[in-house]
Amino acid sequence: MLFAESLYSAINAIKANATRSFLTSLAIIIGTASVIAMIAIGEGAQNALNNEIDNLGGRVLSVYASQRKRGGVTYGSNPLIIKDAEALRNDKKIDWKITPSIEGSRQIKFGNNNMSAGISGHWTNYFDIQGYKISSGRNFTENENLARKRVAVIGPKVATELKTSPRAMLNKELLISGVPFKVIGILESEGSSGWRSPDDNVYVPLLTASDRIYGRKTVNSISVSISNDQNIEEAMVAIEQVLRRQHDIGPGVDNDFRINDWSQYSDLRKEATAIFTILITGIAGISLLVGGIGVMNIMLVSVTERTREIGLRKALGATHKAIMMQFIVEAMLLCLLGGIVGVILGAGMFYIFASFQEWTFYIPLGAIIGSITFSAAVGLFFGIWPARRAAKLDPALSLRYE
Amino acid sequence: MSIIKTVELKRSFEMGTQSVEALKGIDLNVQAGEFIAIMGPSGSGKTTLMNIIGCLDTPTSGQYLLNNQEVSTFLDDDLAMIRNKEIGFVFQSFHLLARSSALDNVMLPLKYAGEKKNIAIDRAKKALLDVGLGDRMDHSPSELSGGQQQRVAIARALVNSPSILFADEPTGNLDSQTGADVMNLFKQLHQNGQTIIIITHEEEIANQAQRVITIRDGLIETDKLV
């Protein structure tokens, strides 16, 4: 009954000073809104990042040659060769797909236009592993690879840069370092993904690249695509075993290759997102703190304004506790309402942001409950002092306060 | 039966470095069912006396027995309970909560008494009926006339069946006709056995009581039956 009276009185007091109450809780509203928006954006960014990593080699490990060291002395680097990739392919312990890449750039010419383009040689499963799709034409075949056929699949931007259209290039001859290649397929546009863009590259069979373009058996990297039910750590160990055997590396000697796990990049970006979230949450926390001080200030004003009312309540039998409760409930309600409005505002802000980013609209329930609870706690904390002042008022003097 | 008994009641206030004695030794005895008017010019100490016997303040020295209970040594929260159960206040300026209905205003002491809601509503309704406001229960103070507001205040003062009804200049803010109505209500309550103490500076009002006590310079000057 006492709590009900406190709540009733608090609602009345807030309604009676609606504008003032709104302005007072504005800092709470802004603080809560930013917490909600930032947590939601952080979460959304994380999901988007995870999707991106999954799409783009999240489960693909890349193996590179590296320098070999022993006791501080650097031995010459031992390059990766096609045979290494074949050894990995022949190892069936782990369910994986392997493709080596020979990369470089060469002058290419189509009609009267020429340019320098990235030319890479792969096995036929390369597009499948990377998740690239061929929009027209076809992929090269294993027979074409073995026969070192002069066939090429091109990214769509190659055509643009050669001032023609992909369609015009299909089944036509493209000169790579003056040697004619037949364009047999065009990739769908993948868009650039950070450091590499598959759209302006030319793809040829591995052995064609090895024998006809670059004249070397060494490969720049070997991609290992692991199925989803495989453990990445285990796969890395298996790669190490195969390659150490291939390169004849004895016990206690360092690897002469390194394995890149793309999920490392995701960890890095996760960390950056986390730091960003902490920063913004800190700012929001300060905003809530300032809001709390504002609430305290207004509550002190309210106590002074309502001295006569407090005197009356005391004359009618309100105890110290009853008056305390009345003003604490009022301060908490003010902050709680601010928190709820803030959550709605923050959710709205995120909704707009999410629709621009084409993210799914999702706000963790914990964030909503947490920020509303926190704003109520701010009210409790900053309401105590004004409430104590009210409770300590002398009834006889308060009744006659002008 | 003695309801109020004070012995050598003194109250002094610290005004800077000076100590001002507002009450210099009041010996007062009030029997159940009495209708008393306390008179005195401003500064005489009548407000201080009312604060103390109304349990809003405590004496500096002396004894105060309310219903044979020594309350002068009570702490704040105990005094709050005494005010809630034993004393009903009526003020010159009504002191109603502006945004609450008449019924909610009358229910307030019952809420502080921890009464159950349905019982509180029943008793508050009955109190409002008793002062003739049965048809105004849902009105807020701004929708009531001055006389009606004071009736709400009287209903609120009586709702917890207090031993004493205190009225501090109850007609001070009312025109003479409404003031007379309120005084008639007090007389009626007195006839029903309610102990009433009115603080006033108007002789006309005081003379409607049974017993008139005048205070001057912190002491009882006269104490006579009308």
From TrEMBL, chain A:
<comment type="similarity">
    <text>Belongs to the ABC-4 integral membrane protein family.</text>
</comment>
<feature type="transmembrane region" description="Helical">
    <location>
        <begin position="359"/>
        <end position="385"/>
    </location>
</feature>
<dbReference type="InterPro" id="IPR050250">
    <property type="entry name" value="Macrolide_Exporter_MacB"/>
</dbReference>
<protein>
    <submittedName>
        <fullName>ABC transporter permease</fullName>
    </submittedName>
</protein>
<dbReference type="GO" id="GO:0005886">
    <property type="term" value="C:plasma membrane"/>
</dbReference>
<keyword id="KW-0812">Transmembrane</keyword>
<dbReference type="Pfam" id="PF02687">
    <property type="entry name" value="FtsX"/>
</dbReference>
<dbReference type="Pfam" id="PF12704">
    <property type="entry name" value="MacB_PCD"/>
</dbReference>
<feature type="domain" description="MacB-like periplasmic core">
    <location>
        <begin position="21"/>
        <end position="241"/>
    </location>
</feature>
<feature type="domain" description="ABC3 transporter permease C-terminal">
    <location>
        <begin position="283"/>
        <end position="395"/>
    </location>
</feature>
<dbReference type="GO" id="GO:0022857">
    <property type="term" value="F:transmembrane transporter activity"/>
</dbReference>
<feature type="transmembrane region" description="Helical">
    <location>
        <begin position="274"/>
        <end position="301"/>
    </location>
</feature>
<dbReference type="InterPro" id="IPR003838">
    <property type="entry name" value="ABC3_permease_C"/>
</dbReference>
<feature type="transmembrane region" description="Helical">
    <location>
        <begin position="322"/>
        <end position="353"/>
    </location>
</feature>
<feature type="transmembrane region" description="Helical">
    <location>
        <begin position="21"/>
        <end position="41"/>
    </location>
</feature>
<keyword id="KW-0472">Membrane</keyword>
<dbReference type="InterPro" id="IPR025857">
    <property type="entry name" value="MacB_PCD"/>
</dbReference>
<keyword id="KW-1003">Cell membrane</keyword>
<keyword id="KW-1133">Transmembrane helix</keyword>
